[in-house]
Structure formats: C-alpha cells, structure tokens
Amino acid sequence: MKELILVIAKALVDHPDDVRIQVKDDERSTVYELSVHPDDVGKVIGKQGRIAKAMRTVVTSASVKSSKRVIVDIVS
C-alpha cells in the first residue's frame, strides 16, 4: 500500500525526492502520513480536496481484503 501511495504522489509533485510516507499501525487501523515539499502540498490536495479524496478512494479500494481501516493523512 505504501508503494501505491508513493507512485501516485510522486507523479503529482514537482519535487518527487521530497515525498515521504510514515506508517502508523495499530489494532484497528493503519495510518499513512504523506509528507511532501511545501510547494507541492496544493498539488497533492487539489482544488477543494478532489485529488486527496481520489487518492484516499483508490487506497481504500485497494485495501478491501484487509480487515483494518486505512487512513491517508497529508501533513506538511
């Protein structure tokens, strides 16, 4: 799942080397914290959050077989 988020995020930004993902795992959920270069935050979020919502939808759909809830947070 981490690789999927990395591929999507790196395709969107101008500074792909600054894309980082930190994984926080607990019993019920897995949280992926996506951090990008400060200039690229708007590109990852998109107008009215459309790109972020689409990314979350893809990741959630890919993790259907997992019994855990998957959350993608965008941090600056």
UniProtKB/TrEMBL annotation:
* Localisation per UniProt entry: Cytoplasm
Q: Which InterPro entries match?
A: KH_dom-like_a/b (IPR015946), KH_sf_prok-type (IPR009019), KhpA (IPR020627)
Any one of the GO CC terms = cytoplasm
Major location category of this protein = cytoplasm
| Domain of life of the organism encoding this protein | Bacteria
The molecular function GO annotations come to:
RNA binding
Q: Which SUPFAM superfamilies match?
A: Prokaryotic type KH domain (KH-domain type II) (SSF54814)
Instruction: Determine if Protease is one of this entry's keywords.
Output: no
UniProt xrefs under Pfam families = KH_KhpA-B
List, in alphabetical order, the GO biological process terms annotated in this UniProt record.
cell wall organization; peptidoglycan biosynthetic process; regulation of cell shape
Keyword field: Cell shape, Cell wall biogenesis/degradation, Chaperone, Cytoplasm, RNA-binding
Which family is it part of?
Belongs to the KhpA RNA-binding protein family.
Describe the function of this protein. A probable RNA chaperone. Forms a complex with KhpB which binds to cellular RNA and controls its expression. Plays a role in peptidoglycan (PG) homeostasis and cell length regulation.
Record text on subunit structure and interactions? Forms a complex with KhpB.
Q: What is this protein called?
A: RNA-binding protein KhpA
Protein's organism: Paenibacillus oryzae
